[in-house]
Amino acid sequence: MLCVLRARDALARFNEALPSSIEKFDDAKVLKTTRLLHAFRTDHPEEVPFALALIAKRLKSRWQLIRLATKAAPSKSAADVAAAPYAIVVPMVLDRLEDRLSELRVALKNNRVLVAKEILTDIYDTEYALQVRIDRLDHCEWGKRLDRLMKSTAALVQTEVARFPDKVGHVLGSIKLRDHHQSPVGRLMSYLVRKARDVLSPRNCPLPEIDQPASRLIGLPPFGSPSGQLSAGSSRGGRHGREGSTGTS
Predict the structure, then answer these.
(1) Quick count: other Cβ atoms within 10 Å of Cβ 199?
(2) Which member of 39, 179, 181, 200 has the lowest number of beta carbons within 10 Å of its beta carbon?
(3) What does each of the 249 residues of the chain score in pLDDT, given as a tens digit?
(4) CB neighbour burial string for 60-86, b if at least 16 within 10 angstroms, e if fewer
(5) DSSP-derived secondary structure letter, 22
(6) What residues contact residue 120 under an 8 Å CB cut-off, 6+ apart?
(7) pTM beyond 0.85
(8) How does DSSP classify residue 71?
(9) Residue 248 · residue 66 · CB < 8 Å
(10) Are 201 and 136 in contact (CB under 8 A)?
(11) Is 59 helix (H, G, I), strand (E, B) or coil?
(12) Are 129 and 69 in contact (CB under 8 A)?
């Protein structure tokens, strides 16, 4: 955490330059935030992940952090996004997705169905956002990790739903919970377009294998946790991220 101590004043100034909250991370806000990041990175390149964590804390929809990478990339190709200056936000969002999966497991264990529904909706929103904003995701390590997390999520939900008789509906088993973003026709068209693009594209995604989530490697604090707030006198660390919502860029 020495790097945080060295840059605590710069991080405090960066923190003050950010809005208190970001309801919608639209193009204008992404551009303004990117300029702040560029200025910060000039003198403190190693502390950029901590600056990103400060941004994530302000987002109403935490998955929107990926827009810092996708908007800077020349295309939606996973390879291009991986080469973007702030590509680290993608594994950060995946780290947060993994955290939400743990929270879902705890909520179900304690029979907190409504809490579980909220968490599950957030998980589905994050999955959807990654899939529609990054092409050929399933050909790279990011996509493989997302697939593992979603399979674990599906297993949890299936176990919960199986506790009840077939004729008794369960809120977590509702198709609308996962597919609330668009109509059935829209979902079909999006699926066909993505598959056609994958077939026609000659690119692959040569992303490196990462044995550990990025947040664990760099020791970031959890998004939204009290210990994750950085200030002029803070030297705490940990992992990042919580929360999410729907929307497209």
Answers:
(1) 7
(2) 200
(3) 555 566 788 899 999 999 999 999 999 999 999 999 999 999 999 999 999 999 999 999 899 999 999 999 999 999 999 999 999 999 999 999 999 999 999 999 999 989 999 999 999 999 999 999 999 998 999 999 999 999 999 999 888 877 766 655 566 766 556 665 544 545 555 556 555 655 555 444 544 444 445 444 444 455 444 444 444 444 344 444 444 444 444
(4) ebbbbbbbbbbbbbeeebbbbbbebeb
(5) B
(6) 104, 153, 157, 172, 177
(7) no
(8) T
(9) no
(10) yes
(11) strand
(12) no
Tokens matching residue 150:
């979603």
| Residues 6+ away with beta carbon under 8 Å from 140 | 78, 79, 82, 205, 206, 207
Distance from C-alpha of 89 to C-alpha of 72, rounded to nearest angstrom? 12
